[in-house]
Write a structure and sequence with these properties.
2 domains; 353 residues; D-Maltodextrin-Binding Protein, domain 2; alpha/beta
């Protein structure tokens, strides 16, 4: 390809990305994963990993397992999928009963309770050295594999381009009454939205706004954030609050009538990963998690449309990340969530139930 054609191709990709269109960028080979041989031997002897995850099965769980098994076919990976409150409850129950079945876990919220219950083990992961410090627990119990950016999703058939809400104030327009949906509770739903409002608007202004928003009759759904988004895509609702922008991008790239906007600012949470205390297969767990946060593992997240936390592995579409997309976002840290989550949930119960 000539230099001029190469430049035109680059600028065409850039223009599409800035327009929010999901495209596959120029392929880049991930650095091969080179694990410690002694760890591989110990993990092979155990032969199994049990993973409790909050991630979407078809989009990332199965691809990550497949990539791991291409290199380590001798280690079986089983998984159980649930939202953060469910996964946390399973982990706490196992720790309390001293009958731990999980090896590796994911959580977007509630880690403080797991740590207090003694359910998390200290991590020693060689690949974690490639992560920025913001994505590592200073106490050594978790790493962040990827970031989720929460935005407003809208059905492009039901919401004309000139009517797309651009600010939180726009959500108070009477035309949206009864036409918005959000997942009940969790950081990927109503609690996360409420927390973002209070964190960015302040207590007094934020509570005034939430009282006004409560009059908009937002429809609660008892499902995952992904399932909530699918309902927006299907036209059951015009707008979904606290959707994951990479889920929107994946669906839009497949031709679905859906778009997203960060409003005044988006919010973002970290997908935490760790190893259970007293895990049945601790070495296999270490190998699997070390692979997940390595450049090879991060490339699987990237290729699945997720937002890897490794600085050497950019997202497939750069504008999904706040710093590259040019939009503001409040990034929740685990301690902030643990300190405020109960109150955010109580506000939902008081105003929106």
């Amino acid at each position: 390809m000539s230099a001029s054609r190469s430049r035109r191709y680059y600028y065409a990709l850039l223009a599409l990305a800035l327009a929010g269109i999901f495209v596959r960028p120029l392929a880049s080979a991930a650095e091969p994963y080179q694990p410690d041989r002694a760890l591989v031997a110990a993990a092979t002897k155990e032969g199994e990993v049990v993973w409790y995850t909050t991630l979407i099965v078809s989009q990332i769980v199965r691809p990550l397992i497949a990539a791991f098994n291409r290199q380590f076919p001798q280690i079986k990976v089983s998984f159980v999928r649930g939202d953060s409150p469910q996964v946390l409850l399973w982990l706490l129950n196992e720790a309390s009963a001293h009958q731990v079945k999980s090896d590796v876990w994911n959580l977007a919220s509630g880690f403080g309770k797991l740590r207090a219950a003694g359910g998390a083990a200290k991590l020693t992961l060689a690949s974690a050295r490639g992560l920025p410090s913001d994505y590592l627990d200073p106490n050594g119990y978790w790493v962040a594999t990827d970031m989720t950016v929460h935005v407003l999703a809208y059905n492009t058939t039901l919401v004309p381009k000139d009517a797309v809400p651009r600010t939180r104030q726009d959500l108070l327009n009477p035309r949206w009454r009864g036409k918005m949906v959000w997942k009940v509770s969790d950081m990927t739903g109503s609690s996360g939205f409420i927390g973002a409002v209070l964190a960015t608007m302040g207590e007094e202004r934020g509570m005034t706004y939430l009282h006004a928003l409560a009059r908009q009759q937002i429809v609660p759904v008892l499902s995952s954030a992904r399932a909530m988004l699918d309902q927006v895509i299907a036209g059951e609702y015009a707008i979904g609050l606290q959707a994951s922008n990479h889920h929107v991008a994946i669906s839009a790239g497949q031709g679905a009538p859906v778009g997203w906007t960060p409003l005044d600012s988006a919010s973002a949470t970290l997908q935490l990963a760790g190893i259970s205390a007293n895990a049945p297969h601790p070495n296999a767990a270490r190998l699997f998690l070390d692979f997940a946060v390595s450049p090879a593992g991060a490339a699987v997240y990237r290729d699945a449309g997720y937002l890897p936390t490794r600085s050497d592995t950019p997202a497939r579409v750069a504008n999904l990340k706040p710093e590259q997309g040019g939009f503001a976002a409040h990034i929740f840290q685990p301690d902030e969530i643990d300190a405020n989550y109960a109150r955010w949930s109580a506000i939902y119960d008081e105003l929106f139930k």
